[in-house]
Amino acid sequence: MDGPHPSGRFETIPCPVCAGRNFSPLFEKAGEPFVCCAGCALVLINPRPRFEALEHTYDAQYSRGYIDKADKKLARCTRWVSRVAKPLGRRGNWLDVGCSAGFVMAAAEAAGFTAWGVELEPAAVEFGRSELGLERIVCGTFEAQRYPDAFFDVVSMYDVIEHVPDLNATVQELARVLKPGGLIEIRTPDVSHWARPRELARWKEIKPSEHLYYFSPDTLTRLFASHDLRLVHRRLLFKAAIDAFYTHA
Fold it and tell me: Binning pLDDT at 50, 70 and 90, where does residue 70 land?
């Protein structure tokens, strides 16, 4: 049965990729059940903590790990931006969803883009404003910002999509704000990757109350296709992660 769990803290959802309601139990960790969808093989926590119970995981201490490595993060983000800018062939508006302290924004600005960013954690946003001089970084959820239609040439979500409470609302909003010919880059752990431990529960990416979903390339592309977004490129990575680029179908 979908909806609130008897405890009040948890909720049961249908599969966000295929809308299936049949799940095979895999294991339990920190009191949270990890399951596999029988219809499409998406791995997820279900029942899962309600969003109100998850917000506490994104605090100043969570952001500090990124901020303390500012120089290294900025250098890495500069490489990421360069990799997107080259095939795009133009500059324009860049949105980083779940932007943390704004290192991708800073790299995009340096490369000639006009950058926006949205982040849940207030301390990270304050660092971006005060230390990196970012004017268009905001605190809140992506969906609440109501950016203009077809506004962004690039939307990036690096290690974010596995956290969002409503996958379909988020991907629908990505499609709405993306310009024709624009690119969405998604990076997320790859549950089907050869480098993942054979025993799934031992994988370092298994994070109760944090990573809600565990995609394979197939389930991620199926999710995006349901919102008329097609895969244009996927980088092969040695680490157990997906790096995929989507545009309008």
Answer: confident
* Cβ contacts of 123-129, under 8 Å, gap ≥ 24: 123/59, 123/60, 123/63, 123/64, 124/60, 124/63, 124/66, 124/67, 124/99, 124/100, 125/101, 127/63, 127/67, 127/101, 127/102, 128/99, 128/101, 128/102
Q: What is the pLDDT of residues 4-49, one digit of tens each?
A: 454 568 999 999 999 999 999 999 999 999 999 999 999 999 999 9
SS3 238: coil
Q: How far does the chain reach from its first CA to its final CA, in angstroms?
A: 34
Structure tokens at 155: 């939307």
User: Under a CB-based contact definition with an 8 Å cutoff, are residues 179 and 158 in contact?
Assistant: no
Helices 122-130 & 60-67 angle (0-180, nearest 10): 40
What is d(CA 116, CA 230) in angstroms, rounded to the nearest whole number? 24
CA distance 167 to 35: 17
Q: Cα-atom radius of gyration of the chain, to the nearest Å?
A: 18
Phi and psi of 237, rounded to 5°? -120, 145
CA distances, 64 to each of 68, 121, 123, 219 (Å): 6, 11, 9, 32
Cβ contact 138:147 at 8 Å = no
Specify the pLDDT at position 1: 43
pTM surpassing 0.90?
yes
Give the three-class secondary structure for 230. strand
Pairing of strands 10-12, 3-4: antiparallel
